[in-house]
Amino acid sequence: MSNPKQLSVQALQWSGHSLKVLDQRLLPEQIRYDEYQDAAGVTEAIASMRVRGAPAIGIAAAYGVVLSVQQHYPNSDWQTAVNQDIEQLAASRPTAVNLFWALDKMRAALASNPAEPLTVLEQLAIQIHADDTAANHAMGERGADVIGDAKAVLTHCNAGALATGGYGTALGVIRSLHKRGKLENVYADETRPWLQGARLTVWELAQDGIPATLIADSAAAWLMKSGKVDWIIVGADRIAANGDVANKIGTYSLAVLAKQHGVKVMVAAPSSTFDFSMENGDAIEIEQRNPKELLPECYLQADSLVNAWNPVFDVTPAELITAIVTERGVVLNPGQHGVRSLMP
Ligand code: MRU
User: Fold this and answer.
1) Which end of the chain lies in a sparser environment, N or C, as judged by fewer CB atoms within 10 Å?
2) pLDDT for 182
């Protein structure tokens, strides 16, 4: 079985017996798919950021569970082996709740179908993948409705097809706006230190014929001051019940700057990104990555006096957000009432 919706850029391709992962560390210079046949490989692909972006991580993990069942079933004790693989997948990255959401779904399906796990789990993973793409299209249209006639937007990190099942969350809204013909400029932050904006977002938009303008992260305040952007549109890794949003480091600074300059802030995310067990964003675990990802080579010796602090997400308080858009609906001014109205 193949993925249901073909798009110009696909982060993940399921072959029926392996998962092909576009190595996003190599983009835009090189387009290379690595093929994984077991959950350990998929775990490594997530931890090393070959695949990244909250929804894509969840989808990859779901396929990882399928690969685990294919590897271990029907050996004696196959369930123990699969559960160990699920634990390993869950430990790959901490912040995006979509990972745990997808693994919980796979675990529940496993528990209720122990006699026939192969087909059921494969169908569920494919469904999770297809549902995410469909959710992106729905939120793209909803987000474009909210934004209406804006001429220019700024996005951060990569919340596009590369980060999802396809189409994208923030980039889904931008794609839908572009189709409506009103959008004149899409600005993208470089997004240090991984450069998801510079390497992935502008490349992905260009693949679809959408012109984009790259800025240094530190140019965002001046861009807003110059009146060149109407909205900031970002994705999310976890949204708490009060509407606080964890997303790529730098999102919080953009939201603070937006308030100063009268720019609106939209967060676009599928419902798999909501964590209603968290009242607010205070308890969200913020992934700290290796200081080596930030430090120039010359500071890597053991006796170096230079270290780095490398949190890769931050939490934007709900009161700085104008709209949270999902496939289920939109919450305007989430700072007033939170997002429980979107609870299933
Ligand atoms: O570290 P990354 O690249 O996985 O971080 C990705 C982001 O922060 C995205 O904005 C978020 O996951 C939403 S993707 C639709």
Assistant:
1) C
2) 85
The yes-or-no answer on residue 237 being catalytic is: yes
Judged against a pLDDT cut of 80, whether residue 1 lies above it is answered with: no
Q: How far is residue 106's CA from residue 108's CA, in Å, rounded to a whole number?
A: 5
Nearest CA to ligand 1 atom 6: 53
Report pLDDT digits (tens) over 152-193.
999 999 999 999 999 999 999 999 999 999 899 999 999 999
Question: How many A from CA of 52 to the centre of ligand 1?
Answer: 6
Helix (H, G, I), strand (E, B) or coil at 320: helix
Tokens linked to 80: 């123990």
Amino acid 66 reads V
Please state the rounded mean pLDDT for residues 210-229: 97
The 3-state secondary structure of 170-194, one letter per residue? HHHHHHHHHHHCCCCEEEEECCCCC
Euclidean distance between CA atoms 286 and 142, whole angstroms: 29
Mutate to test the pocket of ligand 1, among 52, 189, 286, 310 (most ligand atoms within 8 A of CB): 52
Is the C-beta atom of 312 inside 6 A of ligand 1? yes
Q: Closest ligand 1 atom to the C-alpha of 269?
A: 15
Task: Exactly one of 132, 189, 208, 237 is catalytic; name it.
Answer: 237
pLDDT value of residue 114: 78
Contact 147, 173 (CB under 8 A): yes
Structural domains of the chain ordered from first start: 12-133 (1.20.120.420), 143-342 (3.40.50.10470)
- Could you tell me how far CA 328 lies from the centroid of its own chain? 18
Is the predicted pLDDT of residue 280 greater than 50, yes or no?
yes
Q: Which two tokens stand for residue 281?
A: 């964003």
Q: Ligand 1 center to residue 53 CA distance, Å?
A: 4
